[in-house]
Protein: Peptidase
Amino acid sequence: MQNVTTHQVPYPIGTPGTPWGPAEVAAWRAGQQRRRSYAEDVLRVIDRLRERFDVSEYGRLDYAADSYTLFAVRSPDWRDNLPTVLVTGGVHGYETSGVHGALQFLEREAARYAGRANLLVAPCVSPWAYERIHRWNPDAIDPNRSFRADSQAGESAALWRLLAPYSDSALLHIDLHETTDSDESEFRPALAARDGVDFEPGEIPDGFYLVGDTENPQPAFQQAIISAVEKVTHIAPADERGEIIGSPVVAPGVINYALKQLGLCAGITNARYTTTTEVYPDSPRATPKQCNDAQVAAVCAAIDFALG
Structure:
């Protein structure tokens, strides 16, 4: 576990103990600057994939001067008698390997599942946040606590509509994430400030881990992914309390959340197999390539297990 330096002074926006209102959200949004390009990093890769996959628009986000088209990539040989596999990345835009791991899977590995499964991949759910390397959307909403039919987050609502037809037919949904040092130094303090509560410092797990579903944990499935990923990068150990990010470790590198209750992406459907990956890109023992490769290894292991 990594001890990360955190804010020792009140968060610079808002009044301690008072939840943000529109003025605070506007002040926070005004401080966010574009730091990379969705068009260059994501759409350019998706354009290359059009020769081998079906690419379709599933939504559009209009945020003042910024507008983003959301794309899904599907198997070209979609057949109703095949199992459906869902892969999502970039729900939190700052979690880089979630986006590039999904794209790398499509470019390098997806073809080997042709005729065995229908693949549906949404590689960058939150492009505004991707460009600003942030967790929230411009309304200071966390998309990954907002996956409900009546979601106020445009990113979450668009993906919900995309995946709703597969709610009962999907076999697998794997959602690709990262846990970063900035979770503790920026995003959790910002969350506490936004909600008007005290910030309680925590620890960042050093390594890869998975978040399964409390209501449908599928331990053998989770372990199959861990076994594949540990060949690529190290697995996060439990802390001295036997926990990872405050949740009990139920198996090496695995914790469980109530996915649907919390409005998490991996809980959108009733898929038999669901999991959320968490890569640690800030580890001195991991490179960006390893992080992307770990995401791809996780996706392939998940599909291989689900297909039997």
